[in-house]
Amino acid sequence: MVVRRTRRSLAAIHARYSASWIAELMAHLKAVEFFDRTVVIGAELLWSALPFIILLSSLGNQRIDDDISRHIGLNSAGAHIVEQLFRGHPSHAVEPIATGLLISFAGVVSVIQSIQVVYQRLYGHDRYGWRDLPRYLAWLAVLAALLVAESTVNTRVRGVPGEVVQGVVTFAIICAFFAWTIRFLLHGKVAWRHVFPSAFATALLWVGLAVFSSAYFSPLLIDDSRTFGLIGVVFSFLSWFILIASVIVLGATLGAVWLNHHTEGEATE
User: Fold this and answer.
1) Confidence label for 104 from pLDDT (cuts 50, 70 and 90)
2) pTM surpassing 0.85?
3) Shortest CA distance to 258 belongs to which of 196, 189, 183?
4) Burial 66-96 (b: 16+ CB within 10 A, else e)
5) CA neighbours within 13 Å on the CB side: how many for 34?
6) In 3D, which of 175, 182, 181 has the Cα closest to residue 199?
7) Rounded to an integer, what distance in angstroms lies between the CA atom of residue 13 and that of residue 179?
8) Is 155 buried (19+), middle (13-18) or exposed (0-12) by CB count in 10 A?
9) How do residues 44-62 score in pLDDT, each as one tens digit?
């Protein structure tokens, strides 16, 4: 008798789980290969970003390391370590410049393509492969323009009220950017109202990552620096890039799950 009741209870729990949004979320995460995809995108970000940052630090006098420290939310000690890592003597040799640009370009294209694959799997679209290279370049140009604008605005923000307003504006910009990104990388075949849930979830997770980074990454970076030297900072950057990839993939997946439930609810009415 007890065994039968236990089996019925387990069957009821399994039935509830199978019909829940958690089960659907897990199925979507499995479909996009969440863990593999986030590690791959994180490694591609490291591969593309670090050579480009080192190249810019070598060529110019602009404090690239300051922008990095601000985005991660490092304290003064963490920012000082990043400054030591990226500050270099000016170098204008053609070969290292060309090599750095080539590696960075290949990495950026790989990142965009990997993100596009996630969206294609979630929204059920076919892959276009290298035929989308002009689209990748256009996306990269938009991202670069946004980063330059964001850096300019942030240097003028001071005080708590300004930071709150900045946070709200950043959330809105990230939400709009990812909504456009999903629609653009899927060739405009998805309606705006269908991409908004994923964009909203991504922006929300992005803000959460920013808060988390401010509290966590300075101690991590300082620890890695003491344990492994300056090269240990690369491990911290890899962790940060993997978290960024997780935000992008998980945000898109959460939005897709919400959209499925919402669509099914409308169909049953």
Assistant:
1) confident
2) no
3) 196
4) bbbbebbbbeeebbebbbebbeeeeeeeeee
5) 16
6) 175
7) 36
8) exposed
9) 988 887 776 666 555 554 4
Task: Tally Cβ neighbours within 10 Å of residue 26.
Answer: 15
Q: Both tokens of residue 14?
A: 């399994």
Q: Is the dihedral of CA 87, 88, 89, 91 positive or negative?
A: negative
List alpha helices for 60-159, DSSP H: 64-72, 76-86, 94-123, 133-154
> What's the token pair of residue 213?
């980074």
Contact 174, 206 (CB under 8 A): yes
Q: Which residues contact 154 (CB under 8 A, 6 or more apart)?
A: 70, 166
30 C-beta neighbours (distance < 10 Å), count = 10
